[in-house]
Write a structure and sequence with these properties.
The chain is built from 34 helices and 30 strands. It is α/β, with parallel strands linked by helices. The protein folds into seven domains: about 170 residues, no CATH class; about 120 residues, MutS, DNA mismatch repair protein, domain I (3-Layer(aba) Sandwich), CATH 3.40.1170; about 180 residues, Nucleotidyltransferase, domain 5 (2-Layer Sandwich), CATH 3.30.420.110; about 160 residues, MutS, DNA mismatch repair protein, Chain A, domain 3, CATH 1.10.1420.10; about 100 residues, MutS, DNA mismatch repair protein, Chain A, domain 3, CATH 1.10.1420; about 200 residues, P-loop containing nucleotide triphosphate hydrolases (Rossmann fold, 3-Layer(aba) Sandwich), CATH 3.40.50.300; about 40 residues. The chain has a seven-stranded mixed beta sheet, with helices on both faces. Strands 12-11-8-9-10-13 form a six-stranded mixed beta sheet, sandwiched between helices. It is elongated, with a radius of gyration of 41 Å. The termini are far apart. GO terms for molecular function: ATP binding; ATP-dependent DNA damage sensor activity; mismatched DNA binding. It is found in: Nucleus. One of its GO terms (biological process) is mismatch repair.
């Protein structure tokens, strides 16, 4: 043991190269002038002799005083094993109290900041605001009368606080053996175990098998099965339980893939695959190989590579070492491989470990075109057969783990599966969970929507399947009941009325939804995300009839979320309207775009808020809101759910809490909606909801050390006053060991015969003792010292004592890291208890952001506030296409549209190809949708009725997966529209009937148009090139159907057509297809032949019509019936 000296070390021996943690309780030198004569410090008692050296921990000083002066006793020695001295008494007869002097807050920023000089050199006490509260024996400092008055006022409270801190100090460190007790409490290694214990080598467990023995004359013996290393056995045990998962295993400072997983990782990540066995079943074809193929990457690149594998549609499992080297060396299993466990599983729908998620995509592909991160579970019944009348009952539950949103629905669908398609296109899931078998139609629909990278989801979707036993419904009900009952039982406060209401709400779900919910709970439990279902407040039914229905065809045809050219967000309606500042505000606006309101009262509230923000530009409330939104850099919605999952990092937590405190603190004066500064109900309620969490945020933040949280320093994350007891004890234990290490330098110097020894750190190895080569000290190095490294000039050693103390310190550090993590988890639990209040605040901020985005759009030139009526009408003056207008360099030609249930409710639109017919009808539908979102619209004036749905049948494509031709697809979609539309729906039909013969096509188009106008009475826009349909308006005497055309000018005898893009009444009798062929640069010879053939066909048709007219006139002359006369008149009109 190092001899204990009653004298403090010399000043020369205090200049060490390495610092220790003990600075956090070391007193600082005082700057006050010393008295002229100070009494001598009380001498420390001599240490009792010990047979073996023991390190000496630091000790608190004892302060004494008399009438003349005051000076701290220079106790720079250990309190371990020394005799107690009888304390001196002051003149007042009271025993002097022990003194704990703490450094300033800045002095203990991290571990290992004090030198031996700061521990062993006697220093006068620095009286600061922080350290003065520990002084009990000091006389009151001199002060003026004003200061004395203030001090007398606070004397009682100050004295009470001093006594409390003193009692705490005495309880922890007041006994002579306090440090020894702390170290015994936290100690793992016994001295016997420490001697000769080397550091675990991570490569030992991966040691290659020995080469096969050879027979006589070097001939190899018979080939035997390759012996697996302990780590390979670990890997195979885990891999065989998760054969569908790419396993990445932590091995020392790297993560490794093995076998077929290594080949997969090499392909997806571009890393080197070392050849070896690919199979996991010891196949004879690989018996000549003695190792698995492998690939690896550094530990710090884990999330980067996991994200790339998940985006490539792989299920990824991360296997970690769950014990550290120092704790393993101290345990009974120090000679066994590291214990490893599958700690994380990731798929597209469950990846929440990165706040950015999987949203990063190709350049130009905005978030609107990407998968929303939903995991969708689907099940169906009555899925037997393939008949045209087949109907299935479908249940689904969609979860967005990154935000906590849950959508559920139960509905019946026909053989076209249009209802399923509509929901899939709205939700855009990143992953499917299929419960039981699906019908062929549903299977092919899911395959069609998820199998291609150019689908509506913007990326390929993953599909998982689980079994569905016959008793699944009963099992699901019991499973869900037990799940929520367990949550209520685990609640610290016992079951509450709100928790009982949660269980009641879940029990009200339909059978199909219950099956999906049970399957989702089981599935997400594997990923540690089942807690998302605790938040039933955020369960939303998809089929709530408070929103306009936009089915799958409408979303695609009108390009609501992505364009139909390259399937990116640019050029979509969402891209046009998105002016949000935050990610969570952007997600809320996306929901608004896909779910326009049909509740007039809610719609009026939303558009009134937009109008107030639009008119309030450059006002104080407007500028204040704009400034606060622009300062939010954190995705608060995702951070909150990561807090709930206990996956949040310290910097993320600090950033989220500070952002919420910043914006809520700006509205502290708002106690009610009337004090918000806004007149709109929606704005006032959103602003009033923000400051309600301010007090909770202050409570959480005052416990956090800001600088340490920013640096992700777990050891100093909490403020000292809020630090857990076990963390404080472990820090003191580390400080004690480091002080022993510094004290030991004197003993090491004595063995080498020099005055002092300084520790050095080389290549991360601390507490090395350097000895010069060919120096007298080299010959005095004891044989027990272990050489660690060397250069040409120096040798570096670890002594047995230093090695033992370093191992002890490492144990404490690793225990400290675990204790800090546990304390952080407890803090996350406390914050999670306020999740709903925090989530409501974030939702209010998102609402303000989305409204602010709509207000920015409203300020664009040519946008107007629509007027909403209870009538069924669509009257637009000077309407423009919102996306084309922003993409075009030239001005967009505006057009009018007037539809009403009581007047003209259908327009038959004709005109030349490329004349603008489709843009005209799309602009009308988009303006109606934008209006019911709550936005201003691109028009001079808009008077809109409340539509319940927009149906479209546009474009031409076949469906090879279903074996359907283009014409069959058109008729199926038309059939769904005719079954679903109501008088409050807007129907758009583009060139119906073009996929078959002219006569059949005209007949179908005419019948559908007549049915829509006469029976459904929906607002309708019908585009056609069939001139015969233009006569249909004569059947409707009240003008329910009107003919309009897109105007143009003919030049050069019809060889050139100038498109005017203006809509006028009447019919266009030619489509000018040859002109389009000329624009498409079809060879001129082909166009000339087509022109000749077109003229011949027109002449032939005219001759047929004249012949037919002649026969009709003859018949009329013979019979003279009124019906024959009407036919003659109709034939003449056609000519």
């Amino acid at each position: 043991m190092a001899p204990r000296s009653s004298q403090p070390p010399s000043s020369a021996s205090q200049k060490t190269k390495q610092q220790s943690i003990s600075s956090f309780f070391t007193p600082k030198p005082s700057q006050a002038p010393k008295p002229s004569q100070a009494p001598k410090a009380s001498q420390a008692p001599k240490a009792a002799p010990k047979p073996s050296p023991q390190p000496a921990p630091p000790v608190a000083s004892v302060a004494t005083h008399d009438d003349d002066a005051e000076e701290a006793s220079p106790l720079g020695i250990s309190i371990l094993g020394r005799k107690r001295t009888k304390p001196a008494f002051g003149e007042d007869g009271e025993a002097p109290k022990r003194l704990r002097v703490s450094d300033s807050e800045d002095a203990r920023a991290s571990l290992g900041q004090a030198t031996a000089a700061s521990l062993n050199t006697p220093k006068p006490i620095k009286l600061t605001d922080r350290t003065s509260k520990f002084l009990f024996s000091s006389p009151p400092p001199q002060c003026d009368e004003n200061e004395a008055t203030v001090e007398e006022t606070d004397a009682a409270a100050t004295q009470q606080e001093k006594e409390r801190l003193h009692a705490r100090f005495v309880k922890k460190l007041g006994r002579p053996d306090s440090f020894a007790e702390l170290r015994r409490r936290n100690k793992f290694l016994t001295e016997e175990e420490a001697h000769g214990e080397g550091e675990a080598d991570e490569d030992e467990e991966d040691e290659a098998p020995k080469p096969a023995a050879k027979g006589k004359k070097g001939a190899p013996t018979k080939k035997t099965a390759t012996k697996l290393t302990p780590m390979e056995k670990q890997y195979l045990d885990i891999k065989r339980k998760h054969l569908d998962t790419v396993i990445v295993m932590e091995v020392g400072y790297k993560f490794k893939f093995f076998g077929e997983d290594a080949r997969t990782a090499s392909k997806e990540l571009g890393i080197v695959c070392i050849p070896g066995k690919m199979r996991y079943d010891e196949h004879p074809s690989e018996s000549h190989l003695d190792r698995f193929a492998s690939a690896s990457f550094p530990v710090h690149r884990l999330q980067v590579h996991v994200k790339r594998l998940v985006k490539a549609n792989h299920k990824v499992g991360v296997v970690r070492q769950i014990e550290t080297a120092a704790l393993k060396a101290a345990g009974d299993n120090r000679n066994t491989p590291f214990v490893r466990k599958l700690t994380n599983l990731y798929t597209k729908g469950t990846y929440v470990d990165d706040i950015e998620g999987l949203e990063t995509g190709p350049e130009g592909q905005g978030p609107g075109a990407q998968a929303t991160g939903y995991l969708l579970c689907i099940t169906e019944t009555n899925a037997n057969g393939w008949g045209t009348d087949e109907k299935v009952q479908v249940g689904l539950v969609a979860v967005q783990p990154a935000t906590g949103d849950v959508i559920y629905d139960d509905f019946e669908d026909g053989f076209m599966r249009s209802e399923i398609e509509t929901r899939l296109l709205h939700i855009a899931p990143a992953e499917f969970l299929v419960v039981g078998g699906l019908s062929r139609a549903t299977e092919k629909l899911i395959q069609h929507l998820s199998a291609s990278k150019t689908n509506v989801f913007g990326d390929r979707s993953r599909v998982e399947r689980v079994e569905k036993p016959k008793t699944m419904a009963a099992q699901a009900y019991g499973h869900i009941s037990n799940f929520y009952a367990g949550k209520m039982k685990a609640s610290q406060d016992g079951p509450s009325s709100s928790q009982s209401a949660i269980l009641d709400k879940v029990h009200q779900l339909s059978e199909h939804v219950t099956i999906c919910l049970s399957a989702m709970i089981t599935y997400l439990s594997e990923y540690g995300l089942e807690h998302v279902f605790d938040l039933t407040k955020y369960f939303q039914p998809f089929s709530a009839r408070s929103y306009m229905l936009l089915n799958g065809n409408t979303l695609s045809s009108l390009e609501i979320y992505q364009n139909q050219t390259d399937y990116t967000a640019k050029g979509s309606l969402f891209w046009t309207m998105d002016r949000t500042k935050t990610r969570f505000g952007q997600r809320l606006l996306r929901k608004w775009v896909g779910r326009p309101l049909i509740d007039k009262e809610r719609l009026e509230e939303r558009i009134a808020a937009v109008e107030e923000l639009k008119n309030g530009e450059n006002t104080i409330p407007f500028d204040k809101l704009k400034f606060l939104l622009s300062r939010i850099r954190t995705d608060l919605e995702k951070v909150l759910i990561r807090i709930y999952y206990k996956k949040c990092t310290r910097p993320e937590l600090l950033a989220a809490l500070q952002a919420l405190q910043d914006i809520s603190g700006q509205y502290l004066q708002v106690k009610s909606p009337g004090q918000s500064g806004f007149s709109s109900v929606l704005l006032s309620e959103a602003v009033a909801n923000i400051p309600r969490i301010y007090d909770d945020l202050v409570t959480f933040l005052e416990r956090i050390n800001t600088s340490a949280a920013k640096a992700d320093d777990k050891y100093n994350f909490f403020q000292e006053a809020h630090e857990a007891e076990d963390i404080n004890d472990l820090k003191l234990s580390i400080a004690s060991v480091e002080d022993d290490l510094n004290t030991y330098r004197k003993d090491a110097a004595a063995k080498l015969g020099i005055s002092k020894v300084d520790y050095v750190t080389v290549a991360g190895i601390e507490y090395l003792i350097e000895v010069k080569r060919k120096s007298p000290q080299e010959k005095k190095v004891p044989a027990s010292w272990q050489q660690i490294s060397a250069t040409k000039a120096t040798l570096r050693f670890h002594t047995p004592e230093v090695k033992r103390m370093c191992q002890e310190r490492d144990q404490y550090k690793e225990s400290l890291a675990a204790a800090c993590d546990a304390a952080f988890k407890r803090l996350l639990d406390e914050i999670s208890s306020k999740y709903q209040e925090l989530r409501d605040c974030v939702h209010s901020i998102a609402t303000l952001d989305a409204l602010f985005s709509l207000a920015i759009l409203a300020n664009l030139p040519g946008y107007v506030k629509p007027t909403f009526t209870d009538d069924i009408e669509l009257n637009i003056t000077g309407g423009r296409h919102p996306m084309v207008e922003q993409l075009l360099l030239d001005n967009y030609v505006p057009n009018d549209l007037n539809l009403s249930h009581t007047a003209t409710r259908a327009l038959l639109v004709t005109g030349p190809n490329m004349g603008g017919k489709s843009s005209y009808v799309r602009s009308a539908a988009l303006i109606a949708i934008m209006g019911q979102i709550g936005s201003y619209v691109p028009a001079r004036e808009a008077r809109l009725g409340m539509l319940d749905a927009v149906f479209t049948r546009m474009g031409a494509f076949d469906n090879m997966l279903k074996g359907e031709s283009t014409f069959m697809v058109e008729l199926n979609e038309t059939s769904d529209i005719l079954k679903s539309a109501t008088p409050r729906s807007l129907i758009i039909l583009d060139e119906l009937g073009r996929g078959t013969s002219t006569f059949d096509g005209v007949a179908i188009a005419e019948a559908v148009l007549d049915f829509v106008v006469r029976d459904l009475q929906s607002l309708t826009l019908f585009i056609t090139h069939y001139q015969h349909l233009s006569k249909l308006h004569s059947r409707f005497t009240n003008g329910e159907l009107k003919n309009v055309h897109v105007s143009f000018e003919e030049r050069d005898g019809g060889r050139e057509v100038v498109f005017l893009y203006e809509v006028a009444e009447g019919t266009s009798h030619r489509s000018y297809g040859l002109n389009v062929a000329r624009l498409a640069r079809v060879p001129e010879k082909v166009i000339e032949v087509a022109g000749v053939k077109s003229a011949e066909l027109e002449d032939s048709m005219a001759a047929c019509k004249i012949g037919n007219l002649s026969r009709m006139v003859t018949g009329l002359m013979s019979c003279g019936s009124e019906k024959s006369l009407e036919k003659v008149i109709e034939c003449i009109e056609q000519l």
